[in-house]
From TrEMBL, chain B:
<dbReference type="Pfam" id="PF03323">
    <property type="entry name" value="GerA"/>
</dbReference>
<feature type="transmembrane region" description="Helical">
    <location>
        <begin position="259"/>
        <end position="281"/>
    </location>
</feature>
<feature type="transmembrane region" description="Helical">
    <location>
        <begin position="353"/>
        <end position="375"/>
    </location>
</feature>
<dbReference type="GO" id="GO:0009847">
    <property type="term" value="P:spore germination"/>
</dbReference>
<dbReference type="InterPro" id="IPR004995">
    <property type="entry name" value="Spore_Ger"/>
</dbReference>
<keyword id="KW-0472">Membrane</keyword>
<keyword id="KW-0812">Transmembrane</keyword>
<comment type="similarity">
    <text>Belongs to the GerABKA family.</text>
</comment>
<keyword id="KW-1133">Transmembrane helix</keyword>
<dbReference type="InterPro" id="IPR050768">
    <property type="entry name" value="UPF0353/GerABKA_families"/>
</dbReference>
<protein>
    <submittedName>
        <fullName>Spore germination protein</fullName>
    </submittedName>
</protein>
<feature type="transmembrane region" description="Helical">
    <location>
        <begin position="387"/>
        <end position="410"/>
    </location>
</feature>
<feature type="transmembrane region" description="Helical">
    <location>
        <begin position="220"/>
        <end position="239"/>
    </location>
</feature>
<dbReference type="GO" id="GO:0016020">
    <property type="term" value="C:membrane"/>
</dbReference>
Amino acid sequence: MKIRPLLSLFFLLPFLLAGCWDRVEIQDRLIVMAVAIDKVRTEDEKRNFYEFTAQLTEAQALSGRISTPNISPVWNASATGPSIFECIRILTTRVARQPYYDHLQIIIIGEELAKEGIDRALDLFYRDHESRPKIKLVIAKGRAREVLDLDPKLMPISGRYISTLMEEGEAKTARFPKTSTIGQFSSYFHGGANCVLPALRIEKREAKMAGGAIMRGDRLVGWLSDQEVKTLRWLNGTFTAGDEVIVKNGPEQERNVTTFEVRGARSSVKSEIRNGIPVFTFSIRGEGSLAEDGFDHKPSLRKLKEREKEISRNIKENAEKLIVKMQKKKVDIFGLYEEMRRHQHPYWKQHRNNWDEVFQHADIHIDVVTYIRRFGQFK
Amino acid sequence: MKWDEELANRLGGSSDFQRYELGTEEKQLLFFYLDSLVALSYIQNHLVDKLFQDQHPYPLTAVHTVDEAVQAILEGFIVIWSPSEQTAYKATSKGLETRSIQESENESNLRGPRDGFVESLSTNLSLIRRRLPNADLHIHIREIGRQTKTKVALLYVQGIVQPEVLNEVRSRLDTIDIDQVLDSGIVEQWIEDNLYSPFPQVQNTELPNKVLHAILEGRVAIMVDGSPFVLIVPVTFSMLFQAPDDYYDRWLIGSAIRIIRAVGALVALFLPALYIALISYHPGMIPTQLALSISATRAEVPFPSLVEAIAMEATLEMLREAGLRLPKMLSQTVGIVGGLVIGQAAVEAGIVSPVLVIVVAITAISTFLVPAYNASIALRMLRFPMMLLAGSLGLFGLILGAMLILAHLVSLKSFGINYFSPIVPYRPKDWKDLLVRAPLPYLKERPEILHSLNPKRMNLQKRKKGW
């Protein structure tokens, strides 16, 4: 049979090819930990230019194996150009090793660029095979590059520090918006919805996660405080633990407060059309325990019920305030557009193009129920 | 005197052929024997007294032809020629010196009997027969080897073994026509299905219990005189990863150990290749922190990971072979030189990365997990083509190699039984004794794949659920 030698030749041929053409050893790659994208304008204001900064990390210097002072573990290399890809190619004229974006942790977008729209800047990162949809996306108040230039106390690489900060914060508090990766942003934006991205501020040479950036489509239209972000997450029911609610136990005792530690929250939305106006009802249910109480060490069922009611009222008030604010701004950040598309399809079809106006006049109700599951022992 | 001359003519070419004359005038006896096999003192002490008593006839077997006599002498009998009667007799001698039954060195087990086979066929058969005093245990001995005339025994349990398998084994043994059968390995290589496969299609063992377990499942054992390794056929791939301990220990322990072995086999085959693929092609699949530290340790390594890994793995194989061939006292030194000096020095010199040393060490340990030495060697050999594939095509090459190996395993057969069963073809019943060794009452049937004539091997009717 002639097939056998042919077959073996077929298997041997790959080895004779130019040989391992994709092979780049790990130490020859320069891992990019973070990317900052800012807007710069040329003087004649003709073309929009990006200022692209890649945070390159030298692993060997990072590990302390070499102590040559001119080799630094982190290098924020910048390039400006009309497209991100061009910027990356311009960088290769200055960086001697191949930047590698598979380990990219976070993309930070500057405020000015965000106001003009971030979708075009992120396009490369959605498409390229080296970057993943799980890369975190943050809007910086001010210039994004300055965030990368920070020297955080706990980690040598600022990009990685911010990325870890977001991961840790996600489990401990509801102060960060839920949408935090480019994949999530892309699915919101390309689905026609608005969203809230995490916002970052530099405060006393430190990076601080500060509330959310309201994105209408891909444009920054305003900021949410971290208390407002917490309320947003109550409305979406998108967090399991970490929030706290503080209720005053009467106006005269300023310092006597009850702190409610949330252990779980759920929310559901029901929609209907009444007199041509969409009516939404949020049902929020929260569970948790008492972190600090003002019971004077004499808990009773009646007092607990009172506290629960107080907490629910507090959440409801905050939510209503946020909804009014967003209705004034005409930005639906609550995912109601998607809710309409799913459950009120004919109405949605009719009003999909003027949804912002419809949203402004939508009737939104909120029901909050909270349960104190445990209040601890203190004898 | 015709016999005398004839025997001297046939056997006189060897100096160990002895002709010993004894007797008085009226009664004379001639003894023919090989003094390499029989001691003269044995004749004098044990035979002479009895033969020279007057009660005839001798309590001995008569030999009728010269050919028979020659063969008897060569096999270690003493041929006695009585001129007065013109008759020849043969008498057994003391038997040959053999190694006493010892614990098997190659297959050590924690639980279960320790005795291992030795070089003598009769001793080995006694080890089996002693454990299975059953008329259904059939032992057929034949002679194979033009020159060596080695005795080869075929063992099976009538009524359990499937006749087709038995006939297949018999007919393959019938074809053997070879000068020498010095070890069961020669028989194995003659009768195996695929000469070019890296995987063993015949199992060998030194443990009588393993043989018994196999023949009671419906397999056939082949014993070769002069070899302590008994062959078991047909073999399935999973058998090579099983040890007798699995059955003697409680099922949870046995199952856990089997799973560890399976993991070990996979690690032995794929880990170095995976290392190469990840380091050279897909660093994005390594967690960021690890990628940073590997990158830092590899900064001074001048070779691509493929060269680095192949060099270290080859060194390891050299060390292992050196340790095997050297006297036992020296092999420890080799271990120290190899493990400590080479590993440490190579890392410090910056020729290999410390991560690779860990990979090589884990791989080495994993190969030792496989109980069957020949299967472990197969995995060790296949590691190198896998590394080449991973080094040239990355993870794609790794998957390609894995698929080639799987395709080969699935198509392989051992004496008509699919090698990769019960996974392919899928026999869900046999999975009870595959990765997990199910509790004893669940194993009440013999493996389905062997199509035993008597599939049930236990009756649970008298056993209560809760005692």
